[in-house]
Design brief:
The protein is of the alpha+beta class. It has 18 helices and 30 strands. The two termini are 53 Å apart.
Length: 729
């Protein structure tokens, strides 16, 4: 990382009454230091206050995935402090500095990128802060800075001692080193320390943490939206006469985009009650009217015809030739339904005007740049007059960032339709989110695998059909190439298995509803198909599933070596291939996503009535440098539960275009009883850190499916499993 130097003077005045050393990036991209938040030329990654408090400024929002802990750890490490002595603040909306380095000029959290994106940024900022503090102390004491050390907030050496807060003002006057020396891995005490607790746990446990749903501003109005009943419908008119006499009701107005009616009230209960009392006439002329069965039939028909797009380098003709020479061919057809994100906290955001004519949005902002742009476009006010206050989010899984910016548009339109003298808080119910959210698309797959007489794969014809996430939206240029939405085929076309003659074809399904990134995105369905088909092929070849996979991971690339490594370790830790108690069975799956290699072995038991109990998941993750092992284990555990829970019993179905599921009783999340134990092992590595929020999800479902198949039942190819007569304990 190249860092240029810059000098900032100590700023005095009302804004500088309390000195704060801010180390971060200037608009020119250079690293610099300044004092106080009045130093608007600096956008800091770390702030050190005069009382010695150190705050990491977190550019990736905290939705439960541990970003605040990970980035704070990097600052603590380079400042030679304990993680528990570091606090954190959420970064303001400023994509010029706080952009996600993998997303271009966009500030946002997603794709399991937080640590991978910011590993060097935050370490370098912490090291630079350490060096300027040492230099400031050296100047004051008249000694050489190399004679001084900083540890636990105290600078010592040359017979002197002082707290870092004493040197904040002087340090802000110094030139930041061009290339601050980072600590060697052998010196790390915070990075990789398994005993370090999460930094956000305290606030969440004692109730001090503020989520979007918690915002209560003086004199605020609450808005609930009567939304369109099916995709494509619009409002014709509405009758609010039944709501006018309700206590707390203020008014109702149709949204300018025709997507619903905004109902304003003094509190959430009044808003929901009034919303339910309003009668709306809908224009359904362009609305979705198909059933899920009809959509499923269309997608299955698509994978049984020539694909619309070629995603692989190998053509369909070349694969057909390879398959013609196969000793045997196995094939399966798959269907994976629409899925909701179903975070614990439904959507909510609040907008308020400020005394200086600005507006501020309070939100668990997964993409502050989208919040900023939405308010600018709808309200027509300058970008510099817009603020975004990022709060905690109660889970997200991709839900809070979508091409339509749905809830952000709603709250901004609702605010724009008022006189703007009162804050406006938008609140979604769980039913709103399940019935009117943005879903993981439904997909169909058809796979034919050809094997030679030694059991090696000689051809693989893989056809996929589903609704594109990216086409027609703001992410199209980044994700879609030659007609192929990469999110539809990721995990297949880029498989690490050595498979000659592999063709991947894609057909876009017709638009059925709003669709969005979902935890592990395309890997969520592609890994299920790839890894269950590897078991089908292994059985046809007469080989055990682990050996068969390893035979197709010959170690020709570092990627293959690492993928084979997690597979071998997971098999060893789970005792795969060894004798199990009667009625117990193993299933295995391994997949790379978001730069991370994850292998999982699922052990199930099946009783005399055929009821399946998940006894244990054994998982191995290779995510490079393990910054926070405890967070990594928690993320893998959660990802397994998230993936398995949806595959066991969940789907979103349409009846005449209307979503049938409403809440957790009919879109049931994983229960504590569903998995008895999860054991996670982390590969020790010096490779650059990669993603961890999502990679545990893709292998979970196929590992379970392969275990069920190992028990003697047919492989479940149409999800959810309970619709294939699988009963769970």
């Amino acid at each position: 990382m190249t860092i240029n130097t810059s000098r900032r003077g100590f700023l005095k005045g009302a804004g500088a009454a309390i000195a704060v050393l801010a180390v971060g990036v200037t608009p020119k991209g250079t690293l610099a230091a300044a004092s106080t938040e009045a130093a608007t030329g600096i956008t800091p990654f770390v702030k050190i206050y005069a009382d010695g408090t150190v705050a990491a400024v977190i550019k990736h929002f905290e939705g439960g995935q541990g970003a605040s802990t990970g980035l704070s750890t990097l600052i603590a490490e380079e400042l030679n402090m304990e993680l528990e002595d570091i606090t954190f603040e959420m970064a303001p909306s400023n994509p010029a500095v706080y952009n996600n380095l993998f997303f271009g000029p966009f500030q946002g959290t997603g794709g399991s990128t937080a640590i991978a994106n910011s590993f060097m940024q935050y370490r370098t900022a912490g090291a630079a802060a350490r060096d300027v503090l040492l230099q400031a102390a050296a100047v004051e004491w008249g000694v050489d800075a190399t004679a001084l050390t900083l540890k636990d907030g105290t600078i010592t050496g040359a017979g002197k001692e002082g707290k870092i807060g004493d040197f904040v003002a002087a340090a802000a006057q110094l030139e930041v080193p061009a290339e601050p020396k980072l600590k060697d891995p052998e010196e790390w005490t915070q990075i990789g320390n398994p005993q370090k607790a999460r930094r956000d746990s305290h606030d969440k446990i004692n109730g001090e943490g503020i989520f979007s749903m918690d915002v209560q501003l003086e004199n605020q109005m609450v808005v609930a939206i009567k939304r369109i009943p099916q995709f494509g419908a619009t409002v014709v008119s509405f009758d609010d006469s039944a709501a006018k006499d309700m206590k707390g009701f203020i008014m109702a107005q149709a949204l300018p985009n025709g997507a619903g009616v905004a109902v304003y009230a003094e509190n959430t209960w009044a808003a929901f009650q009034a919303r339910d009392a309003i009668e709306v006439e809908w224009d359904l002329s362009k609305a979705e009217t198909r059933s899920s069965d009809e959509i499923k039939a269309e997608l299955l028909a698509a994978v049984n015809t020539k694909p619309e797009y070629q995603a692989s380098k190998t053509t369909l003709t070349e694969t057909a030739t390879a398959m013609d020479g196969a000793a045997q061919v196995v094939e399966r057809e798959f269907f994976l339904p629409l899925l909701a994100h179903a975070p614990m906290e439904p959507m909510s955001a609040t907008i308020a005007a400020t005394e200086d004519g600005s507006v501020i949005m309070y939100d668990g902002a997964q993409g502050p740049t989208v919040n900023h742009g939405t308010m600018h476009q709808i309200l027509g006010i300058p970008m510099e007059k817009i603020q975004v206050k990022t709060l905690y989010a109660g889970g997200f899984f991709g839900r809070r960032l979508n091409a339509g910016a749905d809830y952000l548009v709603e709250v901004t339109l609702a605010f724009a339709m008022t006189d703007k003298t009162r804050p406006v808080k938008l609140v979604w119910s769980r039913e709103d989110d399940i019935t009117g959210g943005w879903y993981r698309p439904a997909y169909a797959h058809k796979v034919r695998v050809g094997l030679d007489d030694t059991g090696k794969i000689v051809g693989w014809d893989h056809r996929i059909a589903g609704q594109s996430i990216a086409k027609g939206g703001p992410f199209e240029a980044m994700i879609v190439h030659d007609g192929v939405d990469h999110t539809s085929v990721e995990g297949t076309v880029d498989t690490l298995y050595s498979i000659p003659g592999m063709h991947v074809g894609l057909t876009d399904g017709s638009v059925a509803t709003t669709v969005n990134f979902w935890r592990s995105v395309g890997h969520s369905h592609n890994a299920y198909v790839m890894e269950t088909m590897m078991d089908v092929a292994a059985a046809a070849a007469g080989q055990d599933p682990v050996s068969f996979r390893l035979a197709h991971l010959p170690g020709d690339t570092p990627d293959q070596i690492r993928k084979a490594g997690v597979l071998k370790l997971a098999a060893e830790k789970a005792g795969f291939g060894k004798d199990l108690p009667a009625g117990h069975f193993h299933g295995v799956a391994v997949h790379k996503s978001f730069g991370t290699y994850c292998a999982e072995v699922c052990e199930i038991s099946v009783d005399g009535d055929g009821v399946v109990q998940i006894e244990k998941f054994t998982a191995v993750a290779d995510c490079g440098v393990a910054v926070n092992p405890d967070v990594i284990k928690a993320q893998v555990e959660g990802a397994i539960g998230y993936g398995v829970g949806h595959i066991m019993r969940d789907e979103i179905t349409l009846d005449g275009g209307v979503v049938e599921q409403q809440n957790f009783p009919d879109y049931e999340p994983l229960r504590m009883r569903d998995i008895k134990a999860i054991e996670v092992h982390i590969v020790t590595s010096n490779e650059a850190p990669t993603g961890i929020g999502e990679p545990g999800t893709p292998p979970a479902g196929p590992a379970l499916a392969n275990a069920i198949a190992a028990s003697g039942r047919d492989l479940v190819t149409h999800l959810p499993m309970i619709k294939s007569d699988v009963t769970f304990a």
